[in-house]
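question for whoever is on the cluster today: can someone run the full assembly for these? two chains, 798 residues total. i dont have access anymore since they changed the login thing
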Amino acid sequence: MRTTTMDPALDLHRLQFAFTATFHYLFPQLTMGLALLVFAMKTMALRTGQARWNDSARFWIRVFGVNFAFGVATGIPLEFQFATNWARFTEGAGAVVGHTLGMEGMYAFFLESSFLALLVWGERRLSPRAHWGAALALFVGTWLSGWFIVATNAFMQHPVGHVVLPDGSVVLESFGAFLTNPWAFVQYAHTMVGSLVTASFVVAAVGAWWALRREHEAVARTNLAVGTSFGLASAILVAFPTGDWQGKLVAEHQPAALAAMEGRFESGSHAELVLIGQPDIRTETIDNPIVVPGMLSFIAYGSFSKDVKGLADFPPAERPDQIELLYYAFHIMVGLGTLFIALMLVANIWRWRGKLHGSRPLLWALLLAAPFPYIANTAGWMTTELGRQPWAVHGILRTADASSEQVHGGSTMFTLLGFMGLYLVLGILFLFLVGREIAHGPKPAVGAAH
Amino acid sequence: MEMIWFGIVSVMAALWVVLDGFDMGAGALHLVVAREERERRSVLAAIGPFWDGNEVWLLALGGALFLAFPAVLATSFAGLYMAVFLITWCLVLRGISLEVRSHVAGREWRAFFDVLFSLSSALLPILFGAALGNVLRGFPIDSSGQFSLGLFGDFDPRSASGVLDWYTVLVAAMALVALAHHGALWLAHKAAEPVRSRAARLAGRAWIGTASLWFACGFATQHLRPDLMSAAWSRPLPLALGIVAMASFGASFALARRGRAGLAFLASAGFLVALLAATAAAAWPTMLHSTLSTRWSLTALNSATPAEGLATGLVWWSLAFPIALTWLFLLLRLHRGTIQPAADGEGY
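^ ran it for u. tokens below:
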């Protein structure tokens, strides 16, 4: 691995990866959570024999199929970009992260791709139990896939199980330590619960939409019940304990990232938590701040008086480079996460009292809430990835030393613009297809209509 | 250990070509063998359950290169930047068009995605074939261990100034025709009539095309890379594999003429595997040949990651490989025999 002068195309490489990864993750975050919900619905269908469970599952499997196809298609460019745009990362860290990326293909992708068509088109062909098995295979496959990607990212956030060679590249020393990276467990729990938040909110929103229109009553009620119960559980779990664990890991291993996330410029004890405010990095102050005294010390270290480092403690070369964006990404995630708990708490209380299906304001709120978990999940990943900067592999390989030197800005700008155009069209196509499915509503079992 | 991983990479590449090759080939012929809606759905039904799993072999191959020969992966992909992104976009468009095509009943909707699917399916073997041509021809890798090639230069392979030149275009043409042959045999085996008979007739013509292009590629390679060809003749493994390739290729023609499309497809698979394996065995240990000086070539020996990591990888790979084959076997068994197109809206 060579350390050289600043690559002039670096920002374009970063922007292209950020754009394509952000767009890609709109799909798997629904797929992974929905795989669990579909599996739960198929299990209930087998156990109770009630048609509403199979009708719900059938509808969501169709949405799952479309969503999965877009996830696969937009995932391929990410795998390729490691090598095309981040050649020095691939060369320098491939001996380690190549394992998890390779295992994802061999263990997860083969499982998912083999059973996807059986799940989507196989309800009539297969016995109920075999179709349930296909749902299980997709659930296991998507959650395994998530594990391998998060384990890869965890190595970049908090490298363990490796040794650094004299040329700067990293090689595997302990496969066990690499696979059981504590950061990976915490990040995986937080990511998967976050995915479940998205899926639950989407399921609840579609149920609310049909309830508002007084359509498909049995399935609408089922969706509302599944969406709000899983929604409450996941909205709580994503904040506590998984979000809390994640925050403590960042505080311990990436203190500069924590300072930037919180907009904290000066070090000191009794650190206050900024709820709202605009960071000004020139004057190193927060405009219009609303703060909770001592709270940041408590969240990060469990005591109100603990010292929390500010950005002033870190030389500029050790600080994240997008402080404002990182600050807002983190605050948007946390703010939305708090609102999710409140909304789902109210929705569940109404449901327990048997009044959710008829409460139009609440149904409207559930309907309109659907896009926000996507924003929160995206903001969460932006927090993670911007907080890792200026490192590609934390403490070992700088992002500036990880890009492909042989690829110039003209090429990268060309492909970046190409992706923007392509993904705009794909985004419209996806919304059209899923909107159509929702408008058609749940369909009866294949063949039963004739 | 480097040799084992070189072998794993070669096997996975061959499996990917054989498996994804039949759905790319069938896709390239989609508009030719199927004209009406029901015929088009016969083609899609015959590849729909398989295509995604087949493409995973490409990703798994990338994963194997990533952990065993990351420098080879990084140097080639970054050096062929523009060509790699053309491939990427074709893969995206192909997957999307195949999956969304039957979701909407409109005639124009389906016509549009049929054309998009078929075009991207035809472009992919051409681009992958050109990439293989580049690997055979070599890259202008210099002392930095890097190169950078645009899509085209002066079209002369001896200067290696672009991805496309007369030699790589020749290999690309062979890849397209050989996979069209392969895909036609798959359809002749799996698809419903009348696609089945049309595909069988096309396979005969594609066989002749493949034979002549193979001949031409052999001569061109002899002219351009005499070192590679002499290695192929003098080493026992590539020589034996070359003979297997020829025998399988001949058998595929003879079996197809007798109407045994399934066996002819297997013979075609044997031909592709043996030809690719022979090429890899002749090239060993070179992975990326430098046209400037062979001391700058990237080989399995100078670009492999340390042996301990490779040994660890071998353990999990050996566990995963039979599992992946089991899923494939289950899928083939479930869809054995002719695959009838599903009713509208109930399948691909």
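summary bc i know u wont read the tokens: Chain A has a mean pLDDT of 94. Chain A has one domain: 10-267+309-440.
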